[in-house]
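Quick start: what a row looks like.
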Amino acid sequence: MPDIHPFLVHFPIALYLTGLFLDLLGVVRRDPAPLRAGWYLLAASCMGCILAVGSGLLAKGAVDVRGPALESFALHEQLALATGAGVCLLFYWRLTYRGDIPVSHRNLYLLAALITAGLMVSTGLLGGILVFEHGIGVR
């Protein structure tokens, strides 16, 4: 089976960060349209995270990681699991409110979403370092 992890990881990152931007825009402008679009992008990102993390776990057995890359590889895996969990929990949170972010929870939701974005960016950067500096997954 070919390693599809490098192909899949970019979609949930782009979808999530764009959705978060739209959520912030919707809150600032008090406009439900960007919030609705952010909700759909969050849902798509959640599905993408499941595929990206799953494909990464499957690819893990096919790569030989040694030396200084081993610690970075383990951290990348832990961050990916935390990021995927964060995105899916945010999706569930919004799902319970039919995609909306209640005004009473907006600050807490946006804080959690920004923390998750930080985890996601860190995970992606570390994945790039693993490939481009350590040659992990390069044949």
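That is the whole record. The radius of gyration is 16 Å. The longest helix spans residues 32-60.
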